[in-house]
Design a protein that fits this description.
This protein has 147 residues and is an alpha/beta fold. The chain has a domain of 95 residues: Rossmann fold (3-Layer(aba) Sandwich), CATH 3.40.50. It is built from 6 helices and 5 strands; from the N terminus they run βαβαααβαββα. The chain has a 5-stranded parallel beta sheet, with helices on both faces. β1, α1 and β2 form a beta-alpha-beta unit.
């Protein structure tokens, strides 16, 4: 089962969760994180040096390439897991997935500092990774138990 892992390029927990889910035999897509924590900053600097605004840069070839890559894998995924804290893009991807009727989970690192009522749109919100994993097993058809 392909799981698209959503999160911030600056959140080191993303890689930990990805590896943990792989250990549990999920097909995890987190390749978007390979560009490093400052990729968006460098893209912004590059586009500003070209004299482009944010709106113009969104229409550029680099932005379209990254967008198409991420969206293709997002569309192929059976479910998504957002590792919080996460930024605007992550929340957009989660909302997109919810809107498509696919399972979308949020994994929080403990009790959040700021609460958000709209997290109820997610299929499930978890503070305990083991509880998330049990839910993922159900989604996969009940195969496996937590190791």
């Amino acid at each position: 089962m392909k799981v698209y892992l959503i999160g911030s390029m600056r959140n080191p927990k993303v890689q930990e969760v990805a590896n943990w889910l792989r250990d549990e035999e999920f097909d995890v897509f987190d390749d978007w994180s390979a560009v490093g924590p400052e990729a968006d900053d460098y893209w912004m600097l590059y586009e500003k040096a070209r004299g482009r605004t944010f709106v113009e840069a969104l229409k550029g070839k680099a932005a379209r390439n990254v967008y198409d890559f991420d969206k293709r894998h997002l569309d192929e995924a059976a479910a998504v897991v957002m590792v919080a804290p996460a930024g605007k893009s992550a929340h957009m991807e989660l909302g997109y997935t919810v809107g498509r009727g696919k399972p979308a989970y949020i994994l929080l690192e403990g009790e959040p500092e700021r609460w958000d009522i709209m997290y109820q749109l997610a299929t499930g919100v978890f503070t305990n990774p083991k509880d998330l994993l049990l839910e993922m097993y159900k989604l996969r058809g009940g195969q496996n138990e937590y190791r």
